[in-house]
Amino acid sequence: MFGCVLATLGGLCLLLSAAWRDDVLTPGDLSAQHAQLLERSEGTKRCASCHAAGDQSFRQWLKHAVDDKLAQPSQTERCLECHQKQIAPAKARWAHNVDPHALVANSDLTVRRRLDPMQELACSTCHREHHGAQHDLKRMSDNTCQACHREQYESFATDHPEFDRWPTRRRTRIAFDHGAHQLKYFPKEKQEFACATCHQQDRGGAFQITMAYEETCAKCHDSKMEASWDSGFALFALPMIDTEALRAAGRDIGEWPEQASDEFDGALPPIMKLLLVADQRAAAALASLGADFDFFDVDSEDPKQLQAAGEIVSASKRLLYAISEQGQVAFRTRIETVLQRKLSKQEFSALTARLSPENLAVITERWLLRLPEEMADGGEATSASTDSNSPQKNREAVHARVAAGGWLSDETTLSIRYRPTGHADQWITAWIDVMTEATTGPHAKLAKPMLKQMMGPTSTGQCGSCHSVDRNIDGSHDDGRCVVQWFAKHVEDVPRWFTNFSHAPHLTQAHLTDCQACHQINPLANVMASYDGDSPETFQDGFQPLTKQSCAECHTPRAAGDSCMQCHNYHVGGMSTGQ
């Protein structure tokens, strides 16, 4: 008996020490994807590509019992040597590649788990090799899923929980009320309300894209938009100033146009206010009166308000002088001061829109003739009024010169204005983006009312009527930054999350070709109220909730199937774009 044992052990040692041992020990053929990569490798090197012990001796194998380092690198680390472009190595061992603390924080995902969310998982937990060339490494059975998830789902129809906020987890990027358009606006214009008017499948058929503005909205909205910028978008303006009240309060502002010298009235354009924020004294005065103040609201009997108003007027003259002398460079300096960063060439070009010295000459040649002299004297007031002549007789003729977009000066309102080129005008969008960026940082309190003014429903261009301003919320993290949603959702914007869905196979069913078979409009939802705030996750959905029953009618084991992986992704966090 003892001899048989020794003979067996000896034979085993010879086997495990032989060069052809791996061919004997292999549990099965590799999948086609891995087999073709290792086809030209030698036997031991082929195994060592994935297994640290593949090129070790039998004696080293015996030492594994007392020295774990011999088993390094781990098989998962070997996997990531090739797959690190698809999945971040730091997140590869997390369940679903999501930070375990985030999983714990989300009770919906962790309430029923068999395993500790903090436990790291090896790739081979789900991806099992050596099952033959035709084996699908990505396929996971329901039993594999339920090895971790305590809740046992015998079938989708009976055990899966009802849908919760799916597929809508945030408000739409473009503020659009389907119910109001279906019941009010389309009938008013005698247009057919059809989903295909605005939505089409992408090339892969999985995603329904929203077509461009020119194809969908322009027919109704262009005229209103053009009417809003008929007189142009004000860059600079000289408001009505009660120079006598300021002088009586000890604040002599110096030269000011006679036609703009009367009782306080008028508001500074929001872009001009933002440029003033770069001036510390002006920023303090704006904070005192409120960033959204109007000179009409200045109390002539309040010394504090008069001093603040006087400082804003003086700062405006300093700004206009800098602009008239330095041109576009003055824009760059002030914007970079507010944003506390450098502007790119593309940003700088968009923000100036070819504003030329000739456009700015009106400041010192017609409105404030003594401005250079005042600034040369250190900003000391030389009290006088400028008669900037009567307003131009034919404003329509002046505007007609820039009908296709460009700069103009308005002698009636003493302002320099920009006439947009059309929808998505680069100058307007660039300034709104800058204003949005300024809402975080040291000047946030001043910038937020300015942004609200630029995005108001009656503002020039009416951008805020459709384009929402969203606070940047990433899961449980809120960094306070805001972004303007210039475009509707694109397939690139859709994050890889636990649920996946493709329209393509569903639209082959005749009864599902009508979008409203699943997406039923809720006419009672106050959709537009969802855009009063900046949180995209606080909203009223314009559609009735999708129900599990509508899917369960087809998704049974004997029909369309109801396996977990048919509708769910395992890899969620840490995946590269497009994976």
Main beta sheet strand tally, sense and closure: 3 strands, antiparallel
Approximate strand percentage: 5-15%
Q: What is the gyration radius calculated from CA atoms? A: 34 Å
Averaged pLDDT: 85
| Termini gap | 59 Å
Strand order of the largest sheet: 3-7-6
Tally the helices: what do you get? 28
The percent of residues in helical segments reads 25-40%
Shape: elongated
Extract low-pLDDT stretches: 380-384
Strand-pairing-aware structural class: mainly alpha
- Counted beta strands: 9
Protein architecture, described:
α15 (270-277) crosses α18, α16 crosses α17 (303-326) and α19 packs across α24 (426-438). The chain has helices spanning 2-17, 21-25, 32-37, 43-48, 58-63, 75-83, 100-105, 107-110, 142-146, 156-159, 178-188, 213-216, 218-228, 243-248, 270-277, 280-289, 303-326, 328-339, 345-352, 357-360, 362-367, 371-376, 395-400, 426-438, 444-454, 503-506, 548-552, 564-567; strands spanning 199-201, 208-210, 233-237, 256-257, 385-386, 406-410, 415-419, 469-474, 477-484. The protein starts with a helix and ends in a 12-residue tail after the last helix. The chain has 579 residues and is mainly alpha-helical. It has a three-stranded antiparallel β-sheet. Among the domains are: 2-72, no CATH class; 178-217 and 473-546, no CATH class; 234-391 and 426-450, no CATH class. It is elongated, with a radius of gyration of 34 Å.
Give a brief rundown of this model.
The protein has 579 residues and is mainly alpha-helical.
